[in-house]
Design brief:
One of its GO terms (biological process) is 'de novo' IMP biosynthetic process. This protein has 237 residues and is of the alpha+beta class. It is built from 6 helices and 13 strands. The strands form 3 sheets. Strands 8, 9, 10, 11, 12 and 13 form a 6-stranded antiparallel sheet that branches. A 5-stranded antiparallel sheet has the order 1-2-3-7-6.
């Protein structure tokens, strides 16, 4: 098999680059410092964001793997790169909402921070060009984005992931408000992919409700890098 080699770039998104390798069914993901919000309308850079998101995602993928949730993470390669399984991403973004915030507050006319009596799962069509529009089970079926069995697996995995992460973050004095997940197919199995970081999660301090996530960038709240560092510090403590 030989030494791992990074080959041609397969994809570049808003936060990551994905590279082919010389090893079958393995890719390299490189995390960038670039930051975007509002479907790319706001752009900037968060110093060392790539390093923090790479390490935090690896840490949480290990936690989830220990809980029996298969994901694409294999190992950390360096500060900015991880080795992952070469999943075929299912073009659906899964939003898990435990507390009202962001777009849900606007759509339903509710105050941010309102507790939900049950966890809400929403879906979006993964398309930068269209601004990731919201879809439901019927759209997913009609557009053949996933089979019924695959969608059922995504839902059940999402609930299990939420149970594990919500409990884990709470132990670190963090409220898991809402977050985005992506799944992919690996050897015909649905597994968790993408990342789990302050870019993809809303995380509030348990005691003060201070926002410690990408909303600090979206809303020009300042101390963005410091908040990302604080989340990682708590998780590693």
């Amino acid at each position: 098999m030989g030494e791992l080699q990074r080959l041609e770039k397969l994809y570049e998104g808003k936060a990551k680059r994905v590279y082919k390798t010389n090893i079958e069914k393995q890719f390299i993901v490189e995390y960038k410092d670039d930051a975007t919000a509002f479907n790319g309308e706001k752009k900037g850079t968060i110093s060392n964001k790539g390093l923090i998101n790479n390490e935090m995602s690896a840490h949480l993928f290990k936690i989830l793997a220990d809980a029996g949730i298969e994901n694409h993470f294999i190992e950390l390669l360096n500060e900015r790169e991880m080795l992952v399984k070469s999943v075929e991403i299912i073009p659906i973004e899964v939003m898990i909402r435990n507390v009202v915030a962001g777009s849900l507050a606007k759509r339903l006319g509710l105050d941010e921070g309102t507790e939900l009596s049950k966890t809400v799962i929403e879906f979006a069509y993964k398309s930068d060009e269209l601004g990731d529009p919201m879809i439901n089970d019927y759209h997913i079926d009609a557009l053949n984005l996933a089979t019924k069995e695959q969608l059922d697996t995504i839902k059940s995995l999402s609930i299990k992931i939420n149970e594990v992460l919500e409990k884990y973050f709470l132990e670190k004095d963090l409220r898991l408000i809402d977050y985005k997940l992506e799944f992919g197919l690996f050897e015909n199995r649905v597994i968790l992919a993408d990342e789990i970081s302050p870019d993809t999660c809303r995380l509030w301090d348990v005691n003060t409700n201070e926002k410690l996530d990408k909303d600090r960038f979206r809303r020009d709240l300042g101390n963005v890098e410091e908040s990302y560092i604080e989340v990682l510090r708590r998780l590693k403590a």
